Amino acid sequence: MSDTGAFFDPARWRPGPLLPRRDARDGALVFIVAVLCFLACLTAIGALAADRAARGWTNQLTGSATVVIQPHGAETPDAAAARAAEALSGVKGVTEARALEKEKAEALLEPWLGRDAMIDDLPLPRLVTVDLDPKAPAKAADLDRALKAAGVLATVDDHSVWIADIQRAAGFARWFALSVCLLIIAAAAAVIGFATRAGLAAHRDVIEVLHLSGAETGFVARLFQTRFATAAGMAGAFGATAAAALAALARLAGGGQGLTPVLPLAWIDLLAVLPVPVLAALTAAVAARLSAAAILRDLG
Amino acid sequence: MSTDDTYSMQDVAGPVLRFSGVGMRYGRSPEVLKDINFELPAGSFHFLTGASGAGKSSLLKLIYMAERASRGRIDMFGRDIDQIAATDRPFLRRRIGVVFQEFRLLDHLNAFDNCALPLRISGGRPDKYRADVAELLSWVGLKSRMHALPATLSGGEKQRLAIARAVVGRPDILLADEPTGNVDQGHALRILRLFVELNRLGTTVLIATHDEDLVARSGQPVLHLDNGRMIHYGRGGAA
Question: How does B180-201 read in b/e, with b if 16+ C-beta sit within 10 Å?
């Protein structure tokens, strides 16, 4: 060290921070906020997946119809099914119609009748599956009209019996997921606010000294606002990163379908975690500012 | 607009401080101050004496606006302090230096930063006030302790640091609550000299103390409180 350095060390004269350095209480705040942000992110991702699943169920039902062929006269069931498929293919609002092979029809009945019970003589109905245009699907009446015109005796099942129930279930799943997500976010915001106020109250002595020394409300509020917003933002980032990592693992583990076909995750869903650290920081900043202002008002 | 000049001494015509029929209570408890009437002319030097519990600290709290009067009126620099907007109060407080009985030093700041706190809050730059603060700390005998944290200071050193912090901003009013309670006779006289020097520069000084010897030596006017009432308002040494 130079002689000059022995007399004057600039680092020793740099003004210290007006707030005490972070302590165990700040660590607790970071932990709590990180956990809540983690949960909020997971529920947000879950809500998106639930919404996608609900849309998928509805689309599957509204995007297809099943036609049950009732053979009559000398025409074989397979021929009737083929003719029905051809007639339906030309209907506006139908993207594809194909007759289900006998083996597939038997496979559908296997769970009820068993593998050994399949008898060739059993008059199995032939099915035609119809894929509908999702933007302007053909109505059941259109399909019925086309079949009658082709002289095919058949029953059209456009799944309308199930659609209302499935749509109701999908809507419930969607709203349930959204409600849980909002509830967790609200709880996270409340806890961040509460923890911030508690942290601020722990520094009341510092606030009093600054206040009595002539510090303006904005000056004191800014100190605490910056401190707690930084802590909550960091915690939010930890929680969001952990949630995104967990969701990414689930996505990878589930292959192309996401976690499961029931809860399909998409990579884009991970973007839902991005606003969380910002929201956590903003909540803490607002809570700190309001709490500091309240303490200063209380002090006079 | 609120500025530090809002309550400059130039605005004052008459006393810098006037209590008119002031009473004060904490919550619903009985009054700790009753019918207080007195005034401090600009540039005056007074002692505030009285037994423990007489209301000395409460009276000082009213002046530095840590508490509010439950009745009566307090004028500071010619203005009723109850009528002063909350946004203007910080600027008024910067005109008042306070030596708290319990020091109220910030434990995480070293002696230098504690002393410089009022200057920093007022927007002062460290390179501008560094020499002044260092000189003041040397004057109160803390030259070798400037970078020490309060926890490592003795009671007397803390008291001297609290005094240095109170006077560093050259306040118009200096309030001190038992400023010599923890220091030896030599330091007590040195502190008294500092207060007298500040007073000569125009600062109005009010010192609450038990130290009858200090009061007698100074020969300054005395305000004496007894059970919340001001019963003596006269020349020093006679209290």
Answer: bebbeeebbbbbbebbeebbee
The C-alpha torsion from B171 through B177 and B183 to B188, rounded to 10°, is 60
A254 Cβ contact list (under 8 Å, min separation 6) = A260, A265
Q: Are B121 and A219 a contacting pair at CB < 8 A?
A: yes
B217 to chain A, closest Cα gap in Å: 31
Q: How many CB atoms lie within 10 A of CB A215?
A: 24
A202: chain B residues, CB-CB within 8 Å? none
A114 touches B: beta carbon within 8 Å: no
Task: Assess A87–B contact: CB distance below 8 Å, yes or no.
Answer: no
CA distance A12 to A102: 89
Give DSSP secondary structure letters for chain A.
--HHHHH--HHHHSPPPSSPPP-HHHHHHHHHHHHHHHHHHHHHHHHHHHHHHHHHHHHHHHTEEEEEE---TT--HHHHHHHHHHHHHTSTTEEEEEEPPHHHHHHHHHHHH-STT--TTS-PPEEEEEEEPSSSPPPHHHHHHHHHHHT--EEEE-SHHHHHHHHHHHHHHHHHHHHHHHHHHHHHHHHHHHHHHHHHHHTHHHHHHHHHTT--HHHHHHHHHHHHHHHHHHHHHHHHHHHHHHHHHHHHHHGGG-S-SSS---GGGGGGGTHHHHHHHHHHHHHHHHHHHHHHHHH-
Inter-CA distances, B3 with A216, B92, B230, Å? 11, 9, 35
Is beta strand B45-49 parallel, antiparallel or unpaired with respect to B222-226? parallel
pLDDT digits (tens, 9 = 90+) for A152-196: 888 888 777 777 787 788 788 778 878 888 888 788 778 877 877
* Mean pLDDT over the full length of chain A: 81
Tell me the chain B residues in contact with residue A215 when contact means C-beta distances shorter than 8 Å.
Answer: 90, 121
Cα(B167)–Cα(B147) distance, rounded to whole angstroms? 19
Residues contacting residue A220 through CB under 8 Å, at least 6 positions apart? A207, A210, A211, A292, A296
Nearest to B126 among A13, A18, A205 (CB): A13
Q: Give residue limits of the domains in chain B.
A: 107-169
Tell whether A208 lies on the interface with B, counting CB pairs under 8 A: yes
Cα dihedral A221→A222→A227→A230 (10° resolution) = 130
* DSSP β-ladder status, B204-208 and B173-177: parallel
User: pLDDT digit string (tens) for A2-46?
Assistant: 444 455 566 666 778 888 877 666 777 788 889 989 998 988 888
Spacing of C-alpha B10 from chain mean position: 20
pLDDT in tens, B167-196: 999 999 999 998 887 778 887 888 888 888
Return the amino acid letter for A63.
G
